[in-house]
């Protein structure tokens, strides 16, 4: 009986250790240390990333350096320094109960977020004029499902009177790991669109509609993306003919 008890105790300890290791790997994820972006004309840009455990400290390439500041595990400030014109932009993030409620940019805009529930978030974006007054430029809704941003609906407010201008962006995902999601606090950065999602976008559809009197103008654009993955189900290569955020990049390689 003592021998059986010792065996049972040993198996229990091993199971607990194995479970702890598995959970730790799941929480920490896997961080890329370098990204190689290749454009259609063959120009490549290398970005190097530095971390403190799974906190992103900075990213650096020939054009731009970005520094990140954390407070209690949340990203509260991002400073983007343009090496070409030597100008910088600062983004400050405010949270309430670990949920992002406000983004202020030194580039003269502010975004407010209202969390209706875990799957629906309202936002309003304002431009700050020279008199420090806020003028609404757009508002809309972010829709989430399974920790992925699946749709953004926007209404543009800075249009002529009598004109209605709207857009809808929808995202389709794979079932693999988005490496940005492994960065501590990154999933709360609602102003980063689909990069905050758990999985990787394989198709982006952008639809626009402008109503001006009796005239209606609509458009729809599709942006497919393909990936290659490693043994841990993280992307090693991302290829797309064009991108919503940067239409010049065709291929992105991730090095971990």
UniProtKB/TrEMBL annotation:
Question: Domain of life of the organism in this record?
Answer: Bacteria
**What is the name listed in the Swiss-Prot or TrEMBL entry for this protein?**
DUF4595 domain-containing protein
